[in-house]
Amino acid sequence: MSRPSLSIFFFAPLKHLLLVVALLAAFPALAAEPIVLGLNVPRSGEYREEGLMQIRGALMAVEELNNRGGVLGRPLQLIEADSASRPAQAVANVDSLVDQGARMLFGGASSAVAIAAGKRAAQRGVVYFGTLTYSNDTTGKDAHRYMFRESYNAWMASKVLGGYLQEQLPGRSYYYVTADYTWGHTTEASMRRFTATEDSRQHPASLLSFPGATQSELRAALRQAADAKPDVLVLVLFGDQMVKAMRVAHEFGLTRNSQIVVPNITLSMVEQVGPAIMEGVLAGSAWTWNLPFELGNQRGQAFVRDFAERYQSYPSTSAASAYSIVYQWAEAVTRNGTLASEALISALEDHEYQLLKDAQRWRGFDHQNVQSVYAVRIKPRAEVMRDPMRQDYFEIVSRLAGEQAVISHPEWLAERRAHGQPEQLR
């Protein structure tokens, strides 16, 4: 048997090497060190479905940006950690993600998680973007320079809902079932303010443990609500807790006898309960998949179509928030030409943009995203089922411009002073 030619050992690898060099020359971003983005979301626990949607939206944005050459000539790499909706775990995740090289952090579903994680991110010198964090405290008493909130807050949701309820159902009796943590407390307080139901004796409430309320605790709270026979039942609950509560409310006849209000809703939550039970529920939202089509926003429409093709589901507000954050971070870094956190903060403050809806702005003094907000009603099941995805849930019944919905600077200053916080973010 003849020996193989030396050219096989020397020239074949050389061809491969030349091919690699050619590819790297054609796609220089592929040769550069990746920029790591850290996503801190619930993959387990009561808000896990919202975490999944955030991951999908973030992955989609990262892939799109990488296909365009990355950021600053470098590809993006997304890493994630499961917060389980527990603040201590979320704080530990911040350290882990930063230690792995993350230059930006984002995520959330529980406001307690976002607030705790954001404070730790500031200590590590990394900007944190809150996705689903609706507590007023996130950009109120707990606001700081390194936290930016993309979502609306409890104040904004309650203002659009309160205006609609006062117009459509004035002078009615209310009952509140509220998750016992920062989002629940600030949302109930905001809803009471904008519906003139501050008197808790006339409009009582039940608190539910969060996380980990038992089924018996949930049933007891809703039994108290049913016994009170309210005209309006406000479920200040989110994720899996809201899903379970709606099923019990239906069992107790509350879906027939009371107008149910869910201050913050997502597609995933409606999907889990089902339109037959959710029909007629009134809710607040900053974004729904059908909104870009109502507004004629082509970029938003493309996002919905691409997401639906990829995941066989319409995107929820969770996905839209994570997607938007990645793009806003990338644009701010590109404008300044640096990954430095202080430069990023300066590039974002009071920056106005338009992406998946109408105009939005990162307000400078509190880092709240100022944007239009909506009251939506869940459509009848027959109408939902006519949609190809069977997810045409949301009818927009009222809207409020961002500047009208958001807390004013004097009101924000009063809140900061009341809690002994500085009047400027630090």
Automatic annotation (TrEMBL):
Keywords: Amino-acid transport, Signal, Transport. GO terms for biological process: amino acid transport. Residues 34-379 form the Leucine-binding protein domain. Belongs to the leucine-binding protein family. This is Branched-chain amino acid ABC transporter substrate-binding protein. The lineage of its organism: Bacteria, Pseudomonadati, Pseudomonadota, Gammaproteobacteria, Pseudomonadales.
